[in-house]
Amino acid sequence: MGSLKVALVGGIGSGKSTVLNMFSEAGCGTISLDAIGHEVLESQDVLQALAEAFGPQVVRADGSADRAEIAKAAFDAPEHTELLNAITHPPILAELDRRMTEELLSRDIVMVEVTSGEISKRALPWADALVAVSAPEDLRIARACSRGSQNEQDIRRRMAHQPTDEERESVADFVVYNDGGLDEARRQVDSVMSQLKRRCQAQRFA
Ligand SMILES: CC(C)(COP(=O)(O)OP(=O)(O)OC[C@H]1O[C@@H](n2cnc3c(N)ncnc32)[C@H](O)[C@@H]1O)[C@@H](O)C(=O)NCCC(=O)NCCS
Ligand SMILES: Nc1ncnc2c1ncn2[C@@H]1O[C@H](COP(=O)(O)OP(=O)(O)OP(=O)(O)O)[C@@H](O)[C@H]1O
């Protein structure tokens, strides 16, 4: 049997985590790239490199990462974001590779939720296929607001830095339209799973 590494992308509030759970129930291995990104910030080597690049304020007195300070320093200019990426992405990709390999020992398909907004092949060199989750902007804002931690203005500001649904759909191999109920999303997930399994089969006989 072949194997597939699949990236799951979608805008804020589109329902990525909800859809990821459905893929897990349908038999996929699942990984959150965001969670790996946060774990990497616990590495002393990474913290030291960030402190050298952005200043000592990015490390708290207790030795942990100050994520708000890192974001402030790293997102104030594109070259600073590139510096952040140069420090954090190699260990993130190494850990992702390790986990995907581990998942693929017992599964044919591993689905990786990508929250950073990146959708280019260059940013996702490991992905064999891309699944996009789409939903109308108003619905996404309502869903994201309902979680209570961010207001509409914060959410719109983040959205402005992310690709649009149309941009994601134009590069995706599959699209889950999460604008109906959960049962409707699950039907689409099951259909995408069948097609991904067929791709695995085709690899096997290739
Ligand atoms: C800058 C950090 C410390 C901010 O952490 P915090 O918990 O406050 O926010 P969170 O991780 O939820 O990210 C918030 C938003 O910032 C944006 N963002 C995060 N990292 C990046 C990046 N490298 N480039 C562009 N936007 C980014 C995304 O839109 C994301 O939704 C953290 O995002 C980080 O370490 N980023 C670098 C690693 C990375 O690229 N992670 C993304 C997934 S691999
Ligand atoms: N089809 C649906 N029907 C009803 N509620 C939904 C549906 N899909 C998602 N939701 C709800 O919308 C909210 C946002 O969903 P989720 O957390 O999965 O989105 P996300 O894309 O992972 O968000 P973010 O990128 O902001 O972390 C959650 O409260 C979830 O329960």
TrEMBL record:
GO terms for cellular component: cytoplasm. ATP binds at residues 13-18. Pfam families: CoaE (PF01121). It catalyses: 3'-dephospho-CoA + ATP = ADP + CoA + H(+). SUPFAM superfamilies: P-loop containing nucleoside triphosphate hydrolases. It is an enzyme of class 2 (transferase). It is found in: Cytoplasm. Its EC number is 2.7.1.24. Keywords: ATP-binding, Coenzyme A biosynthesis, Cytoplasm, Kinase, Nucleotide-binding, Transferase. GO terms for biological process: coenzyme A biosynthetic process. One of its GO terms (molecular function) is dephospho-CoA kinase activity. InterPro entries: Depp_CoAkinase, P-loop_NTPase. CDD domains: DPCK. Pathway: Cofactor biosynthesis; coenzyme A biosynthesis; CoA from (R)-pantothenate: step 5/5. Its main location: cytoplasm. Belongs to the CoaE family. Catalyzes the phosphorylation of the 3'-hydroxyl group of dephosphocoenzyme A to form coenzyme A. This is Dephospho-CoA kinase. It comes from Slackia heliotrinireducens (strain ATCC 29202 / DSM 20476 / NCTC 11029 / RHS 1) (Peptococcus heliotrinreducens).
